[in-house]
Specification:
Helices cover 0% and strands 42% of the residues. The chain has 71 residues and is mainly beta.
Length: 71
């Protein structure tokens, strides 16, 4: 587990497909590659895919990054 000030500040070398990020201690994202994240959107009430450059309040908050040994 590693901490970062925001998703945008995670070095690309640290990200692997399947990496999990917990933002604001309540919201999770899974990295699917090519700067994209999948989430269950609490505002859209559906699963969405967002690019790191898209506006999202959780992309601007402190995060914990979790990666797994088999990656």
């Amino acid at each position: 587990k590693r901490s970062y000030p925001s998703i945008k500040e995670i070095p690309l070398a640290e990200l692997k497909k399947g990496s999990i990020v917990v933002a604001s201690d309540i919201h999770t994202f899974a990295y699917i590659g090519e700067n994209q994240w999948i989430q269950a959107s609490p505002t859209d009430y559906k699963v969405t895919i967002k690019d790191t450059d898209e506006p999202d309040k959780y992309f601007r908050t402190a995060v914990e990054l979790f990666t797994f040994n088999n990656q």
